[in-house]
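User: Okay, second chain of the day. Same drill as before: sequence in, structure tokens out.
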Amino acid sequence: MPSATDRAGREHFHLTLNSDGGSHTRENVLTLVALACGVIAFISGPMVAAHIVASWAGTIGFVVGMYSQYVSATTAERSVNIVAIVMSFVGVAMGVFHGGFI
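Assistant: Same drill. Structure tokens below.
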């Protein structure tokens, strides 16, 4: 009766972008870069003194996020890409409003 002591019945929470079981290193890196740029742009966007950082990080995050969305392989990557693209867009819009790229 090995199934009685087996841990197969337990579900463990596992956060991954590879929901299909394959390894998508390039796509995952692009997604995480877009997310990092989006977070930086979103956080620095409301700060008037950081308008250059918000503008450039938002632009880079938006472009990388759009390309990452184009080459994404899983639904989890696509979901994170959309969040990154929106955060990047909001950050770049606020950065441009506060002073622009230079």
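Residues 24-98 form one domain.

User: Thanks, on to the next one.
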